Amino acid sequence: PSGISVQDVSHTYGARGAGTLALDGINIDIEDGEFHCLLGPSGCGKSTLLYLIGGFIPVQSGQISTATGRVTAPGPDRSIVFQNFALFPWKTVRDNVLYGLKKAGFGPAERAERAQRYIDMVHLTGFENAYPSQLSGGMQQRAAIARTLAVDPGILLMDEPFGALDAQTRRVMQEELRAIWRNSRKTVVFVTHDVQEAVFLADRISIMSARPGRVQHVIDVNMPKDRD
Ligand code: ADP
Ligand code: ADP
């Protein structure tokens, strides 16, 4: 995996001067292999910061770097899971996972092997040929996580991935994600507005204030978890 350095990042939507200041001077250092949560109320700029780290929107002010250098565009070292799953509805679970692998440049044999391995990892064995609409919300999000993990990004970005799930399914998915993280040791940046979720998942939490987004506190979650 790779650490992430966010230095003095600000972001304005719309015309500068007249636009919306979404982020105001963000500084965060995320360690290699850390599970980091961005926690704050709706509209405080969590998604904006996540998309900037992903390279999906250009950095206007300040600097973001990973082990591969300065972030200026999406890269194979970073991969994202969205709240709304973003699966192709016309593709089966297997084809959704294969698509991501193809786009990432894996050859046919390795694509097939990886697709099955990650479908198994998220407990969707037997549902390879199912279409998203045939699956529960939790299962769809597992498929989306398999698609994202299969390309083996060093950095996993997650934008309220469990926000659309019922409370019980969310708890199961949180436990599964933590187990996957424990085994894969990826750097995770996980966006949530749910305090309990952040405390359960994170090693460290950046608490962001309401708009414009600023990091108010960075807290270590000193609970005895599953770190060795
Ligand atoms: P969060 O993820 O914490 O809910 P966002 O990063 O989505 O916050 O949004 C931060 C602020 O930027 C909000 O005020 C939001 O309305 C605004 N914003 C987000 N995306 C856009 C956009 N594409 N155009 C204009 N304003 C936006
Ligand atoms: P999740 O916790 O993943 O949202 P549910 O609680 O909806 O799943 O379902 C629990 C189990 O029921 C699933 O793990 C799966 O084995 C089975 N299941 C759910 N939906 C379907 C479906 N559309 N077809 C077959 N089995 C299903």
TrEMBL record:
Which GO terms fall under molecular function for this chain's record?
Answer: ATP binding; ATP hydrolysis activity
Keywords on this record? Answer: ATP-binding, Nucleotide-binding, Transport
ABC transporter domain location is 4-228
What is the similarity comment for this entry? Answer: Belongs to the ABC transporter superfamily.
What protein name is recorded for this chain? ABC transporter ATP-binding protein
Q: Which organism is it from?
A: Ancylobacter mangrovi
